[in-house]
Amino acid sequence: RKEVEQDPGPFNVPEGATVAFNCTYSNSASQSFFWYRQDCRKEPKLLMSVYSSGNEDGRFTAQLNRASQYISLLIRDSKLSDSATYLCVVNDQTGANNLFFGTGTRLTVIP
Amino acid sequence: EADIYQTPRYLVIGTGKKITLECSQTMGHDKMYWYQQDPGMELHLIHYSYGVNSTEKGDLSSESTVSRIRTEHFPLTLESARPSHTSQYLCASRERGADYNEQFFGPGTRLTVL
């Protein structure tokens, strides 16, 4: 079983739409969570961290449900520039303390 | 912008050649990583390092090797390149300590082996 599972999409949405991505993680001991964004043929970059109480950054809202081991990302009022792959990332709580990256969910915002 | 650099950005080379992909960061991070990623596919961790003189194999078996003689430098070497090594190689670094430390990626090296 993969450490992090995401729906690969693709999600094709019109400009201005609201879109939500979800992911699940397998290790209940995981303590830190992130969403990264990767543009086509570019490196991943941190979009936002995900905190227990949920957090918002402009049009982006991230939520964490520890009981269900589930993380979500909500994008409101989608822009063409939001088109990218969104990676769900979970910290490995074993000795290595590395990050586990999901396979990513591809979003295309259509004019 | 992250202070992590990779050279070359693009490399086309023939089968059997020895190659070294360079990665440097000026953020003083202890932890460094190499990932392999095919177009449109997921990231695969192939090597990582906790600090100087530390190297570990990642989740995906790789014929490459790495070294960490200096904190800022984490080169990856392929002794004999093959077409199956064609891929994008991404280097990353992260400060050790707090769980919410950001991991920074370099721009990647796109390798093609003919």
Shape of chain A: globular
How would the global form of chain B be characterised? Answer: globular
- For the record, give the distance between the C-alpha atoms at the N and C termini of chain B, rounded to a whole number: 33 Å
Mean pLDDT of chain A: 93
Q: SSE string of chain B, helix = H, strand = E?
A: EEEEEEEEEEE
Broad structural category of chain A: mainly beta
H/E element sequence of chain A: EEEEEEEEEEE
Main sheet summary of chain B: 7 strands, mixed
User: What structural class do the secondary elements of chain B suggest?
Assistant: mainly beta
Number of helices of chain A: 0
Low-pLDDT parts of chain A are none
The protein's oligomeric status is: heterodimer
Account of the 3D structure:
The complex is a heterodimer of chains A (111) and B (114). Chain A has 111 residues and is an all-beta fold. In chain A, strands 2, 4, 5, 9, 10 and 11 form a six-stranded mixed beta sheet that branches. A five-stranded antiparallel beta sheet of chain A has the order 1-3-8-7-6, with no helix packed on it. Chain A is 0% helix and 53% strand. Chain A is globular, with a radius of gyration of 14 Å. By secondary structure, chain B is mainly beta. Chain B has no helices and eleven strands. In chain B, strands 2, 4, 5, 6, 9, 10 and 11 form a seven-stranded mixed beta sheet that branches. In chain B, a hairpin with a 6-residue loop joins strand 5 and strand 6. At the A-B interface, strand 5 of A face strand 9 of B.
Q: Brief overview, please?
A:
Chain A has 111 residues and is mostly beta strands. Chain A has no helices and 11 strands.
